[in-house]
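Late entry, evening session. Most of the bench is empty. Finally got around to the prediction I had been postponing all week. Sequence below, unchanged from the version circulated by S.P.
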Amino acid sequence: MARAAAIVVGLLPAERVREHEYLQDGGRAAFEARLVLAATLSPTYGIYSGYEACENVAVQAGSEEYLDSEKYEVKSRRLDGPVLPLVRRLNEIRRAEPALQRLEGLQLLETQSEHLFAFARGGEDEDRVLVVVNLDPHAERDGLAVLPGSLGLPEQFEADELLSKERFRWRTGRNYVKLGPGQSHIVRPRR
């Protein structure tokens, strides 16, 4: 989990993991993983124009500047793109889940895969939301996400996966998770 957390918060040396290279080389899966993290780790987030279309072409190799950047020209845009349905769904989830509307109540969770990043949102007085993200935009990854007893969840419980609208059985302790490239689970224990 330490490496995954370091990637998310940008603590690894720049020569090993560069934020702009993640998006430039990771394709749509990288944009989706970053979007889920932004929308669920903070009560406020935003995306730049072009993000929904996965614009990722650099001016030149190794550059953080994007080709045809709005920084230097006015662009007319259509509101479409492959990531836009995920933006809509995340905003629906955020409106419905009080745990995602406040800064307090974030708890990082242990994972037994360096490619999975997991955390819980919410406190004792509100419903919890559990998030697991595959940080690898190139490969399906699996591993265990560990829910500690301190979250106050039952030993076993039904959970709604809010992105796919599927239902899973989770438990306090170890939970097996398998996610496609850049994919995520946003899980709410059943009320």
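Two things to note before I forget:
The CA atoms of residues 26 and 42 lie 23 Å apart.
The beta strands are 106-111, 116-121, 129-134, 141-147, 156-161, 167-171, 173-179, 184-189.
Will write this up properly tomorrow.
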